[in-house]
Amino acid sequence: MKKILTTTASLSLALALTNSPIFAQEGEKPVSASVEGHIFKPARVDATDARVKQLKVPAGFQITKFAENLNKPRMIAVSKEGVVYVTDRDKGTVTMIRDTNKDGKADEQKVVATKEQMHGIAIRDNKIWLATVKELYTANINKDGTLSELQLLADDLPDGGQHPNRTLRIGQDNKLYISIGSTCNACDEPNKEHATILQADLDGKNRKVYAKGLRNTLGFDWHPQTKEMFGMDHGIDWLGDDEQREELNKIEQGADYGWPYIYGEGKENPGDQPKDMSYEEYKKKTKYPLLTYTAHASGLDMIFYRGNQFPKEYSGDAFVAFHGSWNRSKPAGYKVSRIRFENGQPKEFVDFVTGFLVDDNKAQFGRVVGLATHTDGSLLITDDSNGVVYRVAYTGGKK
């Protein structure tokens, strides 16, 4: 089993029962499925200038390194003054990054806060909100971009388990939204705050479940025109190379998105059966995804584009950072995709930044995580594999 942990291992695994069927019982009706699982992790190689140069973006766009040597940058946010902040779960830091001469490359980096397993981040006006696994903090942003002393708002967020990374957004209703992933791959969670998006006041009070049945919706945002909420949910592992596909959902208050019992457009998870009702009954209370994407691609952030630098057709479209798969034989993800919207509704995924997979897909030099729109309208992308923040700018073909 040691080979499972090596970077380039590819093997069939058994879910505890490989090559044997999984059985569940629904009244008098048996349910059976046979699943083969794989692990493949492309080897990490350096993000050299030559490799970065071969990254592919649409015509008229240019991608460059905005900042580097950042260890493992995860989530990212930008203040109205154009100061960039990134969290590092590994070191527990928040780093302030500035491009003081506005040449598209950062020239200042400074750690401005430290808490173990720091991850989620959101900014509104001159305040910042930060989340670890169990804790929620806020602080003032000083004029020089540093932060005041962190103020603890809550220390009772649900336990981490398999998905300990919390993400934060502030909605148009001035409420704080907190993504809480599941503790497991698929199970009946005893804590009803797991596998949800929570809503709370900005001071952390009046916390409640906003939507449930979401295995791990780290990336979510509101459409700038329709104000509707959308989020990318991670699919269940160990259902095979092509199941469960990643889901783009319209997130509605009080809705149930089916995990762990129902996935995709009404598929039944044979390993978990709803309590006190049939699969068919549970489907009737489940919201289905609007779009799906390649299984195990692992969308870690999603934002709508609100800048004014990109061409007009990007207005109202979203971007997703697909961190990259490990639970399939051929890698998927390792890219940034655009979600094209029409009349406020998602229509398709389109590649936006590709080329992080190299050496015939056996190696990678970037696992993208966080997304933010800079005040100049460029798109910033974190990479926690090589410690880089990338910048995608529209130049119209001019260098």
From TrEMBL:
Residues 56-393 form the Pyrroloquinoline quinone-dependent pyranose dehydrogenase beta-propeller domain. Keywords: Signal. Residues 1-24 form the signal peptide. It comes from the Bacteria. The keyword Metal-binding does not apply. Transmembrane segments: none annotated. This is Glucose/arabinose dehydrogenase, beta-propeller fold.
